[in-house]
Amino acid sequence: MHIHRYESTFLWLSGMMLVVFAGAILISVFGLGVQLPTQVDQVAPADVETEPGFDNPGVREVYPGHYEAYIVAQTWQFTPARIDIPAGSEVTFFVTSKDVIHGFKVFDTNINIMIIPGQISEVTHTFNEPGEFQFYCHEYCGSAHHTMTGVINITGGE
Ligand code: CUA
User: Fold this and answer.
1) How confident is the model over 32-68, as pLDDT tens digits?
2) 81: which DSSP letter?
3) Is it true that the peptide bond before 12 is cis, omega within 30 degrees of 0?
4) Which are the contacts of 72, defined by CB distance < 8 A and separation ≥ 6?
5) Fewer Cβ close by (within 10 Å): the C or N end of the chain?
6) How far is CA 71 from CA 34, 74, 95, 158, in A?
7) Which of 52, 105, 91, 97 is nearest to 71 (CA)?
8) Where do the H-state alpha helices sit in 5-97?
């Protein structure tokens, strides 16, 4: 069967594009470590205050250089709204909501998750550079949604 040269060229290019796209996914997952934030557990909104970790929201050092941050979202605030950790730290965030759907987006990072009532979401990030990283709610959650913010302060590192 004769295939026109243009047609075979476009078939070949289309095939190569599929290989490139699949390669980009494999490189981002296994080379760059890009992961979707995962739902790790469930907790009823009414039970957040007694759930281990969320009963005392905040940041704790698990071992040198690695921290866990338990953050509770509710209309219209994050608890805690300020997190201080030294530069070079790897932080695993556990986030849940006491009421409605909120969002958790940290500027200048890949952290961008929905906070769904009943779910505990987990996302990990390493903060290498000192500075202030604002975070905010990016799911509309009511009249004061725009005030629902916080900051991660990365200190020192010299
Ligand atoms: Cu919480 Cu918008």
Assistant:
1) 877 776 777 888 888 888 888 899 999 999 999 999 9
2) S
3) no
4) 48, 54, 57, 78, 79, 95, 96, 97, 98
5) N
6) 22, 10, 5, 28
7) 97
8) 5-26
Q: What are the phi and psi torsion angles at 31 (to 5°)?
A: -90, -50
The type of residue at 68 is E
Interatomic CA distance for residues 74 and 117, integer angstroms: 10
Instruction: Supply the DSSP symbol for 34.
Output: -
Nearest atom, ligand 1, residue 102 CA: 1
Buried b (16+ CB within 10 A) or exposed e, 15-43: eeeeeeeeeeeeeeeeeeeeeebeeeeeb
CB 31, CB 39: distance < 8 Å: no
DSSP labels for 98-148? SSS-EEEEETTSS-EEEE-TTEEEEEEEEE-S-EEEEEE--S--STTGGG-
Task: Report, in angstroms and rounded to the nearest whole number, the Rg of the chain calculated over CA atoms.
Answer: 21
104 Cβ closer than 6 Å to some ligand 1 atom: no
Strand partners for 71: 95
Question: Relative to the CA of 138, which ligand 1 atom is closest?
Answer: 2
Cβ(102) to ligand 1 under 6 A? yes
